Amino acid sequence: MADGSYYTWVDAQGRIHNVPLKPGEEEPPTQPPGDENDYQTEEEVQEKLRQYDEDNPAFYVIVEPDGRVRTETYDAEAEQEAAAETIVSDDEVIIGWDPMLAPPFRVEQQMTQGACCEAFADQFVEAPKQFKSVQLFDPVRYRSFPTSQGNHTAWYFHIGKPPKASSGRRFLMLRLRGAPAEASLISLNSDLKPLYYSRRLPLNAVPESWHSVGYQEARVLVEDKEVEGFILYLDMKPAEDMSLEIRWADGYVPFQ
Length: 256
Hints:
six-stranded mixed β-sheet; elongated; five-stranded mixed β-sheet; alpha+beta; DUF4124 domain-containing protein; Jelly Rolls
């Protein structure tokens, strides 16, 4: 920087020099000779990155059963936004969602008032966040659930109350992996009292694909605001590598 008839500069070792200017001599340029780098602002860098992603989109390479190869563009951000923006229509609710947990279909009152599930309060795993999967593994690590047909291995989970601005419909999706299974579902209120019992829960088999192992899926429509917890018990001896994925959302399908 010029300071009267002097200019100040710093050498490569960090030493500061004050050099007098000769008569008629101009202050040297602030950028060293030969430095032709194009320094960009953060906004310019981000715009270049955005343009690069637009010009070079990510894609899947898919091999069809007949051996044909095709590509399909992939936009992770768009897929996540679609899950949060696609409202489920009434027609979609009727087709493919079973059981439907609505007050007219509750179990008899004496069943709700009886002793059932309070003793298992310490077994429940919290799954409180919409669109966020919770994974439960080997069910034998949890206490067995007793029924009139004997004890069953089970998973216990709690999704909590509906959000304040609820649509009145919560969509719960359960995915079983590891081995084919038959399962039953007990839906509970905040006191762990049973409100619904779904014997032999409908499970749709989804085959293995190039990006996912096979699994069985249950789609549960919750229209009863008092439902907060669930017990899913298996009607079989489970494989050691069995797991349960839980995901739910209010007013939307949690998976696309």
